[in-house]
Amino acid sequence: MKKFWHILKKILTVTFTLSCAALFIVVLTSAVKKQDELTCKTLQVKIDYDSGLAFLNEDEVSERINFLSGENIIGRLLSKIDFHTLEKEIEKNPYVCDAEIFVDHQQNIVISIIQKRPILRVINSDAVSYYISEKNDHMPLNDNFNVRLPVATGFVNTNINPLRDSLVECNLYVLANFIEHDVFLHALIDQVYVYENSEFDLIPKTGNHNIHFGNANENMADKFKRLKTFYRDGLTKTGWFKYKSINLKFDGQVVCEKRDSLETSLAETQND
Known about the structure:
By secondary structure, the protein is α/β, with parallel strands linked by helices. The chain contains seven helices and twelve strands. The strands form two sheets. It has a nine-stranded mixed β-sheet with strand order 6-5-4-7-8-9-10-11-12. It starts with a helix and ends with a helix.
């Protein structure tokens, strides 16, 4: 009798296990089927406006998403949407640094966008203007939004000498990146002039003098250290308009050219 109950117990256990497995498969299949039938309720575009940038707006991103989808994405089956491809296409926009698309628990498609941050505006020798971003990308100007940045002008050519041109742009990027991350320099520098020999002059927002910087790839940090020391210990005592030029090209030195008294008076009047 005991043997009979032992066998029956085994049969019941196996039966119960198989029943649970079958039920799990049914529930899972039903859930997958239900998941495949879910549709997009709304499209929500979130752009990092708190960064101070506004190259993009929600409407144009929504229009682009609908265009890439071939139809209005709202109401479409979520299982039929290629989110990876949509992300990559949105990231091709020259103002987009990163895009992430996901579905929230309410079946809304959310696209979160981080914009590229420009650090320098360039006006090249062909009078073509563009930005250089913090990741060293070219960005076109935007008709709806402008950024107040240092401007590089002068001998910034376009494919005349690719080796020289790429070196100039590389040095401009390094210089602009350094300025962008220094509070004092960011507030000071208004323009960068590029000479034909690829040396730079920096033009401050105040003081009516030029800063002969030379090559950006030579002792840049030391040059800026000397410049800030000179501003702090020199110009604060003599006044901002005593010199017409400040030369940082010589190691360990700051060489200045003075104005005459008339030039100083004119410079002070122009600044008022």
